[in-house]
Each structure stands twice: as C-alpha cells, then as structure tokens.
Specification:
Number of domains of chain A: 2
Structural class of chain A: mainly alpha
Helix content of chain A: over 70%
CATH architecture of the largest domain in chain A: Up-down Bundle
Distance between the termini of chain A: 56 Å
CATH topology of the largest domain in chain A: AhpD-like
Largest sheet of chain A: none
Largest interface: A-E, 35 and 35 residues
Number of strands of chain A: 0
Shape of chain A: elongated
Number of helices of chain A: 7
Order of helices and strands of chain A: HHHHHHH
Radius of gyration of chain A: 17 Å
Strand content of chain A: under 5%
Oligomer: homohexamer
Chain lengths: 144, 144, 144, 144, 144, 144
C-alpha cells in the first residue's frame, strides 16, 4: 500500500475484488455506466472495491451483512439489493441467514422495508433455484 | 390478554384483524412470503395486526391516518401504500380525506413524496371506481 | 378564496391559524427565523398554515395524526415533533392517543424512530404536567 | 408583490414559471393530477413555482443544482428526478455538470443513490439524443 | 414455541435476552419508558428481543453487524447506535470490526452517516477505555 | 492523473483541497477521527477531497449548492451542514444564496428539513458576524 500506483493499476485491482464479490452483476452495473458516467463506474471499482472492500479488517461475509442492513434501511435501493443478495450468497452467507437478516430488519426499519428487501431476495433466490425455502416456523402458525 | 396463548392462536387472532383492515390485499402479501420467509408473514399477522392493530387506544381510521403519513414520508413504500389506501377506505376514511392527507404531506415531506403518494392513491381509486373525484378548488385555478 | 388578497393579508390569516394550532411554540419558531430567513417564516405562516392547514377537508386532529406519523418517520425532526405533540394536545388528541400513535409507528418505521418520538412526547408531557401516564398493559408484563 | 392577487392569477403566474423551467414534463404531472388531486396540482404550480421558483435570489441553474442534490439524496424520487434532469438541461446546465453533480453525490449519499440518479439521467439523455457522453477519465482506467 | 405462554412469561423471556445482548443500556431504555409508554417498553422486550433476537438462524454477532448497518443508514438514531455499539462489543465483535463496519458504510450511505456513526463509537469506546485504537493505515497518510 | 502516486501523496493532495474548501472546520473533523478511525479521516481527505472535489467539471460553488441540497435532504447531518455552510461561504456563495437554497428545499424536502438547515445556517452566520440579514420580503408580511 505504500507503493506508488497508477489510476489504471488501481482500477485493475478493484475490478478483481468486484468480480470476486459481486460476480457478473457488478460488471453489468459498471458496463451500464460506460456511456453516461464512466467515472462513476471507475470509482465503484477502484475506490469502493479496490480500497474499501479489500481491507482485511472485516470478512467478506461480514461486509455483506452490514451491506444488507444498510440497503434495506435506505429504501429505494432494490437494484443494489439485488446485486448484494447475490454477493451475499457468493461470499458464503446461506439463504437462511440472508432471509433472517431481513426479518431482523423489521425491528429497526419497520415492516415495509423488511418486506421490500425480502421480496427482492425472493426474486434472486428464484433466479438461482433456491425456492422454496423450508422454514421451521411454518408448522405452528404460518400461512397454509 | 393475561391468558396463555399458543403461537397458532396468536396467528389466528391476528389473521382476523388483518382481514378486517387490509382485506384481500393483506392476505396476498402474506401468501407471497410463503416460499421465502413464512416467519415474516407470521410476524406481520401475529404481531403487527394481532398485537398492535388490535389495541383499542386508537380507532382503526386514526391508525390509517398515521400509517398513510408514515408510508408517504418513508418513500419507496408504494406497494405498502397501495395496501393501506385500500385499508383506509375499508375502515371508513373517505377518498377526500385520503387525498387531503397526502396534500397535507407536502408541508412536511415536500412535493415529491406527496406526488408519489397521490399517484398511488390514483391507482387504487381507479381500481375501485372512485375516479374522477370532484374538488372544490378546481374552478378558480386548477388545470382545465 | 376567489377574492384578491395581498401578501400581508395572507400572512395575517395564516398567523391566526398557526396560533390556534401550534400556540406559542409556532410563534417561537417564526420569531427565531426573523434575523436569518424571514421569508421562510412567512411561508410557514402564509402557505403551510394559511393555505394548507385552513382547508376543511381534514379535521385539525386528523391533520395532527398524519403529521405525527410523518415527523416520526422522517427522523431527525425532534424540534418539529415537540411543536406538534403540543399541537396535537391543543386540537383535541388525548395523551393516550398520541402515545399510541407512536407505538403504532414501530410497525412501519421500526423501534428507533418510535423510541425517539416517544421520548419527545415524554418531554412535552412532562412540561405540561401530564406524567406519569397510566397504561393498562403494565400489570401483566411492563417493567416494575 | 404587495398588490392583491386572486387564486387564479397566482395560478397563471406559476404556470408560466413552471413551463419555462420544467417544460412539457411539468405540465404532464399537473395534468395527471386533474382527476385525483387538482389542489395538489394547483399548489405545485401556484406555490412551488409561482412563489418559490420565481424569487430572484437564486439563479434557475443554481436552483436545479440544489434540486438535483435533494432528489438524489431523498431516494425513491426517480419520476421527479427525471423531470428535473430535463429542467436542469432547460435552464442551462450542461450534461457534464449534471453527471458530475451525481458523481459528487456519492460522497454524501453513497453509491446506491448516485447510481440510481445517474441511470435516471441516462434515460433522459438517451431520450434527448445526448448519449454517449465523452468523459476524459475513461482512457486511463474506465471500462473498455 | 408451540406451548401456550402468557404475556408476562413472554416479557420475562425477552428481558433475559435483552439483558444478555444490550446489558444495562437496554434496561435503561425500558425504564425510561415506564411513565410514558410502558407498552412500548413491553414490545421492545417481549417482541424485539423475546421473539426476534432469540431466533437461532443468525448469530448474535451477525445480528449486531446488520443492526449497526441499519442504524448508521437510518440516521438520527445516535441514542440507539450507542446502545448497539455496546451490544456489539458485548456479543463479541471487536472494536476494529465495529469501526471497519462504519468505514464500510461510507460506500453505501455516504460520509456524513459514516462520520456520525464513528463519532458515536468514539463516545462508547472512550467510556469503556478502548481509546486510542491503533490503525495500521496511519503511518502512510493519516493525520499527524 | 496517469502518473503513479503513493497513498501519502494522495493524502497530501487531498489535504490541500480540503483546506481550501472547508478551512479549519474540515481539519477539525479529521483530527477528531485520529484516535478512533484514522482510515476514515484518510478517506475523507484522499478520496472525497483529493479525487472527487478536485475534478474540474463542476465549480466549487456549484459543488456546495449540490452539497447543501443533499445534507438538507438527508436530515440528521447538522454537524456536516455546519461545515458546509462555512465551506459555501469560503468558495463564494453569498449568505443570501445559502439561505435561499434552504428556503427552496422546503419545496422538495418539506419544512422540517428546511427549518433545521436554516437554523444551522443561523448558527454559522452568527459565528461569522453575518447576522442579522436583511430580507426584502420582510416589509409586507414577515414577523415584526
């Protein structure tokens, strides 16, 4: 980190981190920015992923737990939440943990935010063949 | 309330309250959660409606006034606002009162939130055959 | 409303509405703006209260229910919430109804917003000699 | 401003300001309100544009910079942001300045809000034939 | 969970969970509600902690990571963030992990939210004798 | 920008930009982070100011207009707003323009956010000897 780096080198480093966390969904966002704001794409890659995500002080799965909490709370971030539900699965969180994090969000953000996040997870899980989930709570009081 | 209840009993009680307030729209939300987070559906029913909505300290119409204010202010809650515009009509608020509450919201939340809420009401009112509304302000300065 | 009015006349009309709803707390806000943004004070009075609050389509108590919901949901509006807890009492909402509206907000905004609003109500109620409140729920499970 | 005006006169004045800033997009919003809340349309026109926008203390382009910042930060205001990206172009901000304002927003609102705003600008720019934009940063580190 | 429970039993169970996670800070919040909204205190204890926090699908430390993300993103929740920085330490997150989660939040919520959260952590860490922290990044570019 | 730079060089560059925009208020924030999160201070300096603020596509005064809009809209950012009211004055916005931007915010964010921002400006203006401001609107309808 004390070595001199060029802007292009920082981009290359960030792109590797982005790919490892977000997979093709992250690349699609950056590609979508190419004709309107390539600099925003550059900063997502070089700064957000190259500088922040690559720090070792928090494990990738832990970063996604924090990120799911933030995106749920902010509201109106369904496109980004979709990317990060995928990212959460990519870095080792289980479907149950993701759904539980969104259930937990009802306590702090209220039910509308928890519902919007959960329906975003439903969309991603469906695309990845992860539905239906089993849930131990269903027998004694869930819907039939 | 001092009697012992089971989880299933609390669900049954909450479901009756949910149905009386939200009608089929509330049931549709709970059904949509069945394969992804039945526990979230359970908590909407058992806690939000069974515990909170069933308290007598605030009349059902008053709860919906507070709820319309919150959902408008939060932003990004159009699906929930749609459910609760229906709920507001179900529990006795008039179309004029609902539209006026959203007009009032411009003072505290600004026009974008007021506009988004009002266009959500327009969708629901249209589905229920409540359009066009008359409005006494139109003659002296509304659009033609 | 079809008659011609001057800016000063609209201010005078709005000030009467403001005084009837917010009492001295509203006047204090307007006075505090005199040396920094008298125009903001003018618009609070002439537009928010003179135009919006004076419309008959929603009763004053109903406007305060919507307003309490919005201010709770927005967060960071404790000074305005303090004014409007007072306003809510002024226009006929009971302490129980105000506290219940804030309890209800936990469902839609989560507990942090509900707590901040409730502690603001506690401050206002204390200033008006309305504490402690009795609460029927206490015997079977509230704190001792 | 000290002269007496009627409600209809204030509407006519505001409509001229609205048309000059927002163009046909603003008119479409007001028209869409005609059957649900003509009074909300009246207040957008008469108060927001007639009273606030017409004040000389801030240039139209400066008002749009502030407005783009607010709409980006609020989140969930994509319909309004679409209107105001058009408005920003109408009052003389360049495409580069608009995109840069949204890039700048990442610092204060985070990347999800910046991304949502930028993709809204992309939609408007596409409709107005302003894509692709050139960006000097691309050569040394943007996506290929 | 299929057994019948009374309201008082659910409170007792929740209180044990609250105490184990939040320690005396959680109890202080509930005590502060006793004279204004004991029912809100009851629901924090019985529902938030007794029902939601006690579910095994997410480890206590993982719940706090999500919670720190939400409270940082919501803004205006400094009192709750203070409780949960303490809670995060209580359930095994290290000071470095907490500070890193808040640094990470700058990517999604922007710097103002990240700064407010970090200064709240500073207050709690100071009270618990955890300052100054060492940070490996300081030598090559932090402030002197 | 295509040249290789070290982390320390990027910090030095950013610090010069920070000092030119925020003055001593920015430095105080960075200093306050030294014992809790020097990395957050580093990123404020190196990335926010060194990378983003130093881009020529938007004039410094224009950046502050966008920033004032965002901080007002976000809410709960009074400490940052205080820094940026100072910054706005430093880069050439007049007191009238700053106050007008906050008045304008009432249209998009509602009055509570506009009031909180304006009272923050009042504090800063008072510290800099800029009060009372004259305001042409006062004669015909402002408070006495």
């Amino acid at each position: 980190m004390t070595d001199a780096t060029t802007r292009a080198q920082r981009y290359t480093h960030g792109r590797a981190v982005l790919d490892s966390v977000d997979g093709s969904a992250g690349a699609a966002v950056v590609d979508g920015l190419a004709d309107i704001s390539p600099e925003l794409g550059h900063q997502v890659v070089s700064w957000a992923f190259g500088e922040m995500y690559s720090r070792p002080a928090l494990a990738p799965r832990d970063r996604q737990l924090v990120t799911l909490g933030m995106l749920t709370a902010l509201g109106g971030c369904e496109p980004q939440l979709e990317v990060h539900v995928n990212a959460a699965l990519n870095v080792g969180l289980s479907p149950d943990q993701i759904v539980e994090a969104m259930l937990h969000s009802a306590v702090y953000c209220g039910f509308p935010r928890a519902l919007n996040a959960t329906f975003t997870a439903k969309k991603v899980f469906g695309e990845r063949g992860l539905l239906p989930r089993s849930d131990s709570a269903a027998p004694d009081g869930g819907p039939q």
